[in-house]
Amino acid sequence: MSPITAYLLYALFALGGAAVYLAMPRTREAPARIAGLILGLGAIVGGLILLGTRLMPASSVNPGFYIFAAIALFAAARVVTHPKPVYSAVYFVLVIVAVAALVLLEGAEFLAIALIIVYAGAILVTYAFVIMLAQQARLSLYDTRAREPLAGVVIGFAAMAAVAACTTDTSALPQIAAQPAASIVIQADVGNTLAVGRSLMTHYVVALELAGVLLLVGLVGAVALVTRKVPRDGTAEPPAPIGRIGKEVQPF
Amino acid sequence: MPGLPAHYVVLGAALFALGLVGFLTRRNLIVMFLSTEVMFQGVVVNLVAFGRLHGHLDGQMFALFLLVVAAVEAGLALGLVILLYRRKSSLDSEAWATMSG
Questions:
Q1: Cβ distance of A127 and B64 shorter than 8 Å
Q2: Nearest to A79 among B34, B64, B72 (CB)
Q3: Residue ranges per domain, chain B?
Q4: Looking at the domain B7-89, which fold is it?
Protein backbone atom coordinates (compact mmCIF):
# COMPACT_ATOMS: atom_id res chain seq x y z
CA MET A 1 0.00 0.00 0.00
CA SER A 2 1.48 3.30 -1.04
CA PRO A 3 1.78 6.11 1.54
CA ILE A 4 -0.73 8.23 -0.38
CA THR A 5 -3.34 5.48 -0.09
CA ALA A 6 -2.67 5.21 3.62
CA TYR A 7 -3.11 8.95 4.14
CA LEU A 8 -6.27 8.94 2.06
CA LEU A 9 -7.57 6.11 4.23
CA TYR A 10 -6.79 8.03 7.43
CA ALA A 11 -8.42 11.16 6.02
CA LEU A 12 -11.54 9.15 5.27
CA PHE A 13 -11.61 7.74 8.80
CA ALA A 14 -11.26 11.26 10.18
CA LEU A 15 -14.14 12.34 7.95
CA GLY A 16 -16.26 9.43 9.11
CA GLY A 17 -15.41 10.17 12.73
CA ALA A 18 -16.42 13.80 12.31
CA ALA A 19 -19.64 12.66 10.68
CA VAL A 20 -20.53 10.31 13.53
CA TYR A 21 -19.61 12.99 16.07
CA LEU A 22 -21.88 15.52 14.37
CA ALA A 23 -24.71 13.02 14.04
CA MET A 24 -24.64 11.99 17.71
CA PRO A 25 -27.91 12.77 19.44
CA ARG A 26 -27.84 15.97 21.40
CA THR A 27 -30.34 18.65 22.25
CA ARG A 28 -31.50 21.20 19.67
CA GLU A 29 -28.81 20.89 17.02
CA ALA A 30 -30.62 19.57 13.98
CA PRO A 31 -28.37 21.30 11.39
CA ALA A 32 -25.27 19.60 12.85
CA ARG A 33 -26.94 16.21 12.60
CA ILE A 34 -27.91 16.76 8.96
CA ALA A 35 -24.36 17.90 8.20
CA GLY A 36 -23.09 14.77 9.92
CA LEU A 37 -25.35 12.63 7.77
CA ILE A 38 -24.05 14.23 4.57
CA LEU A 39 -20.44 13.97 5.73
CA GLY A 40 -20.98 10.33 6.61
CA LEU A 41 -22.43 9.49 3.22
CA GLY A 42 -19.45 11.25 1.65
CA ALA A 43 -17.04 9.24 3.80
CA ILE A 44 -18.71 5.94 2.89
CA VAL A 45 -18.77 6.66 -0.85
CA GLY A 46 -15.19 7.97 -0.77
CA GLY A 47 -14.04 4.94 1.14
CA LEU A 48 -15.61 2.55 -1.34
CA ILE A 49 -14.11 4.43 -4.28
CA LEU A 50 -10.72 4.27 -2.57
CA LEU A 51 -11.16 0.54 -2.00
CA GLY A 52 -12.11 -0.07 -5.60
CA THR A 53 -9.36 2.04 -7.15
CA ARG A 54 -6.34 1.66 -4.91
CA LEU A 55 -6.60 -1.05 -2.29
CA MET A 56 -7.84 -3.98 -4.32
CA PRO A 57 -7.50 -4.91 -7.96
CA ALA A 58 -10.86 -4.00 -9.41
CA SER A 59 -11.45 -7.42 -10.92
CA SER A 60 -11.26 -9.19 -7.56
CA VAL A 61 -14.13 -7.29 -5.95
CA ASN A 62 -17.70 -8.27 -6.65
CA PRO A 63 -19.73 -5.15 -7.58
CA GLY A 64 -22.36 -6.20 -5.08
CA PHE A 65 -19.83 -5.69 -2.32
CA TYR A 66 -19.89 -1.91 -2.78
CA ILE A 67 -23.65 -1.72 -2.56
CA PHE A 68 -24.04 -3.90 0.50
CA ALA A 69 -21.01 -2.44 2.25
CA ALA A 70 -22.47 1.05 1.82
CA ILE A 71 -25.83 -0.14 3.18
CA ALA A 72 -24.18 -1.87 6.14
CA LEU A 73 -22.04 1.12 7.07
CA PHE A 74 -24.86 3.63 6.74
CA ALA A 75 -27.25 1.49 8.76
CA ALA A 76 -24.63 0.82 11.44
CA ALA A 77 -23.99 4.55 11.76
CA ARG A 78 -27.72 5.13 12.20
CA VAL A 79 -27.98 2.37 14.82
CA VAL A 80 -25.35 4.22 16.80
CA THR A 81 -26.63 7.74 16.29
CA HIS A 82 -30.41 7.52 16.14
CA PRO A 83 -32.01 8.98 19.27
CA LYS A 84 -34.98 6.57 19.25
CA PRO A 85 -34.13 2.97 20.24
CA VAL A 86 -36.93 1.55 18.10
CA TYR A 87 -35.36 3.06 15.00
CA SER A 88 -31.95 1.82 16.12
CA ALA A 89 -33.36 -1.71 16.22
CA VAL A 90 -34.92 -1.37 12.77
CA TYR A 91 -31.66 -0.05 11.31
CA PHE A 92 -29.94 -2.99 12.94
CA VAL A 93 -32.14 -5.29 10.85
CA LEU A 94 -30.80 -3.46 7.82
CA VAL A 95 -27.23 -4.11 9.02
CA ILE A 96 -28.05 -7.80 9.34
CA VAL A 97 -29.54 -8.03 5.87
CA ALA A 98 -26.54 -6.27 4.33
CA VAL A 99 -24.06 -8.43 6.23
CA ALA A 100 -25.96 -11.56 5.20
CA ALA A 101 -25.68 -10.47 1.58
CA LEU A 102 -21.94 -9.85 2.00
CA VAL A 103 -21.50 -13.27 3.59
CA LEU A 104 -23.46 -14.77 0.71
CA LEU A 105 -21.04 -13.14 -1.73
CA GLU A 106 -18.25 -15.02 0.06
CA GLY A 107 -20.04 -18.31 -0.51
CA ALA A 108 -21.36 -18.91 3.01
CA GLU A 109 -24.99 -19.61 2.17
CA PHE A 110 -25.93 -21.42 5.35
CA LEU A 111 -24.47 -18.71 7.54
CA ALA A 112 -26.29 -15.98 5.59
CA ILE A 113 -29.65 -17.65 6.10
CA ALA A 114 -28.84 -18.39 9.74
CA LEU A 115 -27.92 -14.74 10.29
CA ILE A 116 -31.25 -13.57 8.95
CA ILE A 117 -33.29 -16.14 10.86
CA VAL A 118 -31.48 -15.89 14.18
CA TYR A 119 -30.66 -12.20 14.23
CA ALA A 120 -33.37 -10.47 12.27
CA GLY A 121 -35.92 -13.04 13.38
CA ALA A 122 -35.22 -14.04 16.96
CA ILE A 123 -32.80 -11.62 18.58
CA LEU A 124 -34.42 -8.52 17.13
CA VAL A 125 -37.84 -9.64 18.34
CA THR A 126 -36.37 -9.97 21.83
CA TYR A 127 -35.00 -6.45 21.58
CA ALA A 128 -38.35 -5.19 20.31
CA PHE A 129 -40.11 -6.76 23.29
CA VAL A 130 -37.73 -5.16 25.76
CA ILE A 131 -38.05 -1.80 24.05
CA MET A 132 -41.82 -2.07 24.29
CA LEU A 133 -41.58 -3.06 27.97
CA ALA A 134 -39.12 -0.47 29.13
CA GLN A 135 -39.10 2.46 26.76
CA GLN A 136 -40.78 5.69 27.75
CA ALA A 137 -43.34 7.09 25.35
CA ARG A 138 -41.41 10.28 24.71
CA LEU A 139 -37.70 10.74 24.31
CA SER A 140 -35.91 10.78 27.61
CA LEU A 141 -32.83 12.74 28.49
CA TYR A 142 -30.48 9.79 28.26
CA ASP A 143 -31.56 9.17 24.67
CA THR A 144 -31.08 12.69 23.42
CA ARG A 145 -27.69 13.30 25.00
CA ALA A 146 -24.66 11.22 24.16
CA ARG A 147 -22.04 10.60 26.82
CA GLU A 148 -18.61 12.03 25.94
CA PRO A 149 -19.20 11.85 22.18
CA LEU A 150 -15.86 13.37 21.23
CA ALA A 151 -13.75 10.97 23.29
CA GLY A 152 -15.77 7.96 22.18
CA VAL A 153 -15.54 8.85 18.51
CA VAL A 154 -11.80 9.52 18.71
CA ILE A 155 -11.14 6.20 20.46
CA GLY A 156 -13.34 4.22 18.08
CA PHE A 157 -11.99 5.67 14.88
CA ALA A 158 -8.38 5.56 16.03
CA ALA A 159 -8.86 1.83 16.67
CA MET A 160 -10.40 1.46 13.21
CA ALA A 161 -7.51 3.27 11.55
CA ALA A 162 -5.00 1.10 13.41
CA VAL A 163 -6.68 -2.11 12.28
CA ALA A 164 -6.97 -0.91 8.69
CA ALA A 165 -3.37 0.27 8.59
CA CYS A 166 -2.09 -3.09 9.85
CA THR A 167 -4.22 -5.30 7.65
CA THR A 168 -3.95 -3.38 4.41
CA ASP A 169 -0.16 -3.43 4.60
CA THR A 170 0.22 -6.90 3.16
CA SER A 171 4.01 -6.84 3.25
CA ALA A 172 3.98 -7.02 7.04
CA LEU A 173 1.81 -10.14 7.18
CA PRO A 174 3.23 -13.64 7.46
CA GLN A 175 2.68 -15.83 4.47
CA ILE A 176 -0.32 -18.07 4.83
CA ALA A 177 0.12 -21.80 4.75
CA ALA A 178 -1.01 -22.99 1.36
CA GLN A 179 -2.46 -26.32 2.42
CA PRO A 180 -5.11 -26.46 5.14
CA ALA A 181 -6.15 -29.77 6.64
CA ALA A 182 -7.65 -31.77 3.80
CA SER A 183 -10.88 -32.77 5.51
CA ILE A 184 -12.21 -29.28 6.05
CA VAL A 185 -11.35 -27.79 2.70
CA ILE A 186 -14.23 -26.19 0.87
CA GLN A 187 -15.17 -28.70 -1.79
CA ALA A 188 -16.54 -27.33 -5.00
CA ASP A 189 -18.81 -30.27 -5.72
CA VAL A 190 -20.51 -30.25 -2.33
CA GLY A 191 -23.00 -27.56 -1.38
CA ASN A 192 -22.13 -25.18 1.41
CA THR A 193 -24.95 -26.34 3.68
CA LEU A 194 -23.94 -29.98 3.33
CA ALA A 195 -20.31 -29.15 3.99
CA VAL A 196 -21.21 -27.10 7.07
CA GLY A 197 -23.42 -29.89 8.36
CA ARG A 198 -20.72 -32.50 7.91
CA SER A 199 -18.19 -30.27 9.61
CA LEU A 200 -20.57 -29.62 12.52
CA MET A 201 -21.17 -33.32 13.04
CA THR A 202 -17.53 -34.39 12.79
CA HIS A 203 -14.92 -31.81 13.69
CA TYR A 204 -17.11 -29.56 15.78
CA VAL A 205 -19.38 -32.09 17.44
CA VAL A 206 -18.07 -31.33 20.94
CA ALA A 207 -18.42 -27.62 20.33
CA LEU A 208 -21.95 -28.23 19.08
CA GLU A 209 -22.89 -30.05 22.29
CA LEU A 210 -21.27 -27.30 24.34
CA ALA A 211 -23.27 -24.71 22.40
CA GLY A 212 -26.42 -26.56 23.42
CA VAL A 213 -25.32 -26.52 27.06
CA LEU A 214 -24.52 -22.82 26.77
CA LEU A 215 -28.00 -22.09 25.42
CA LEU A 216 -29.53 -24.06 28.29
CA VAL A 217 -27.46 -22.16 30.86
CA GLY A 218 -28.47 -18.88 29.24
CA LEU A 219 -32.11 -19.89 29.35
CA VAL A 220 -31.95 -20.84 33.03
CA GLY A 221 -30.03 -17.68 33.83
CA ALA A 222 -32.48 -15.41 32.05
CA VAL A 223 -35.44 -17.03 33.78
CA ALA A 224 -33.72 -16.84 37.16
CA LEU A 225 -32.93 -13.17 36.61
CA VAL A 226 -36.36 -11.87 35.76
CA THR A 227 -38.80 -14.08 37.66
CA ARG A 228 -40.24 -12.56 40.78
CA LYS A 229 -40.40 -14.44 44.03
CA VAL A 230 -43.90 -15.72 44.72
CA PRO A 231 -44.38 -16.85 48.34
CA ARG A 232 -46.27 -20.11 48.65
CA ASP A 233 -47.24 -20.21 52.32
CA GLY A 234 -50.13 -17.79 52.13
CA THR A 235 -48.15 -14.77 53.30
CA ALA A 236 -48.57 -12.97 50.01
CA GLU A 237 -50.58 -9.79 49.93
CA PRO A 238 -54.21 -10.26 48.97
CA PRO A 239 -54.84 -9.73 45.28
CA ALA A 240 -55.97 -6.29 44.24
CA PRO A 241 -59.70 -5.95 43.74
CA ILE A 242 -60.90 -6.17 40.19
CA GLY A 243 -60.81 -2.86 38.38
CA ARG A 244 -57.95 -1.38 40.39
CA ILE A 245 -55.11 -3.26 38.82
CA GLY A 246 -53.95 -0.40 36.67
CA LYS A 247 -53.81 1.97 39.62
CA GLU A 248 -52.34 -0.13 42.37
CA VAL A 249 -50.17 -2.74 40.78
CA GLN A 250 -46.96 -1.87 38.99
CA PRO A 251 -46.94 -3.32 35.51
CA PHE A 252 -43.52 -4.86 36.13
CA MET B 1 -2.62 -17.74 -3.12
CA PRO B 2 -5.50 -15.27 -3.38
CA GLY B 3 -4.82 -11.79 -2.12
CA LEU B 4 -5.73 -10.65 1.35
CA PRO B 5 -9.39 -9.55 1.39
CA ALA B 6 -8.50 -6.00 2.41
CA HIS B 7 -11.93 -4.68 1.52
CA TYR B 8 -13.62 -7.10 3.92
CA VAL B 9 -11.08 -6.37 6.63
CA VAL B 10 -11.62 -2.63 6.36
CA LEU B 11 -15.39 -3.09 6.34
CA GLY B 12 -15.21 -5.35 9.40
CA ALA B 13 -13.02 -2.83 11.19
CA ALA B 14 -15.45 -0.04 10.31
CA LEU B 15 -18.47 -1.96 11.61
CA PHE B 16 -16.59 -2.89 14.78
CA ALA B 17 -15.49 0.69 15.36
CA LEU B 18 -19.00 2.03 14.83
CA GLY B 19 -20.30 -0.45 17.40
CA LEU B 20 -17.52 0.53 19.79
CA VAL B 21 -18.37 4.21 19.42
CA GLY B 22 -22.01 3.43 20.10
CA PHE B 23 -21.18 1.38 23.17
CA LEU B 24 -18.99 4.14 24.57
CA THR B 25 -21.24 7.09 23.86
CA ARG B 26 -24.86 6.01 24.13
CA ARG B 27 -26.48 6.00 27.53
CA ASN B 28 -29.55 3.89 26.82
CA LEU B 29 -28.84 0.31 27.94
CA ILE B 30 -30.79 -1.20 25.03
CA VAL B 31 -28.87 0.81 22.44
CA MET B 32 -25.60 -0.11 24.13
CA PHE B 33 -26.36 -3.80 23.66
CA LEU B 34 -27.48 -3.18 20.07
CA SER B 35 -24.04 -1.62 19.53
CA THR B 36 -22.36 -4.80 20.75
CA GLU B 37 -24.39 -6.69 18.16
CA VAL B 38 -23.05 -4.33 15.48
CA MET B 39 -19.54 -5.20 16.70
CA PHE B 40 -20.43 -8.89 16.30
CA GLN B 41 -21.35 -8.21 12.67
CA GLY B 42 -17.91 -6.76 12.01
CA VAL B 43 -16.39 -9.92 13.43
CA VAL B 44 -18.65 -12.15 11.33
CA VAL B 45 -17.61 -10.36 8.14
CA ASN B 46 -13.95 -10.81 9.02
CA LEU B 47 -14.29 -14.47 9.98
CA VAL B 48 -16.02 -15.43 6.76
CA ALA B 49 -13.61 -13.46 4.57
CA PHE B 50 -10.55 -15.05 6.19
CA GLY B 51 -12.13 -18.48 6.03
CA ARG B 52 -12.53 -18.02 2.29
CA LEU B 53 -8.93 -16.81 2.05
CA HIS B 54 -7.64 -19.94 3.76
CA GLY B 55 -9.96 -22.11 1.74
CA HIS B 56 -11.72 -23.94 4.53
CA LEU B 57 -14.85 -23.75 6.62
CA ASP B 58 -13.40 -22.77 9.99
CA GLY B 59 -14.36 -19.13 9.60
CA GLN B 60 -17.97 -19.99 8.90
CA MET B 61 -18.08 -22.43 11.80
CA PHE B 62 -16.70 -19.82 14.19
CA ALA B 63 -19.31 -17.38 12.93
CA LEU B 64 -22.04 -19.95 13.55
CA PHE B 65 -20.91 -20.48 17.14
CA LEU B 66 -20.70 -16.71 17.47
CA LEU B 67 -24.41 -16.66 16.59
CA VAL B 68 -25.08 -19.00 19.53
CA VAL B 69 -23.09 -16.83 21.90
CA ALA B 70 -24.83 -13.70 20.60
CA ALA B 71 -28.23 -15.27 21.19
CA VAL B 72 -27.34 -16.23 24.77
CA GLU B 73 -25.86 -12.81 25.34
CA ALA B 74 -28.98 -11.08 24.06
CA GLY B 75 -31.22 -13.16 26.30
CA LEU B 76 -29.17 -12.58 29.44
CA ALA B 77 -28.44 -8.92 28.71
CA LEU B 78 -32.06 -8.09 28.07
CA GLY B 79 -33.06 -9.97 31.21
CA LEU B 80 -30.61 -7.79 33.11
CA VAL B 81 -32.01 -4.68 31.41
CA ILE B 82 -35.51 -5.58 32.55
CA LEU B 83 -34.24 -6.24 36.07
CA LEU B 84 -32.46 -2.88 36.21
CA TYR B 85 -35.46 -1.09 34.75
CA ARG B 86 -37.68 -2.53 37.48
CA ARG B 87 -35.40 -1.12 40.14
CA LYS B 88 -34.93 2.42 38.82
CA SER B 89 -37.59 2.93 36.13
CA SER B 90 -34.85 4.23 33.87
CA LEU B 91 -32.72 2.80 31.10
CA ASP B 92 -29.90 5.25 31.74
CA SER B 93 -26.66 3.41 32.35
CA GLU B 94 -25.47 6.29 34.50
CA ALA B 95 -28.29 5.68 36.93
CA TRP B 96 -26.05 2.88 38.20
CA ALA B 97 -22.91 4.98 38.56
CA THR B 98 -23.27 5.52 42.31
CA MET B 99 -20.46 3.08 43.10
CA SER B 100 -17.90 5.00 41.08
CA GLY B 101 -15.76 7.30 43.17
A1: no
A2: B34
A3: 7-89
A4: Helix Hairpins (1.10.287)
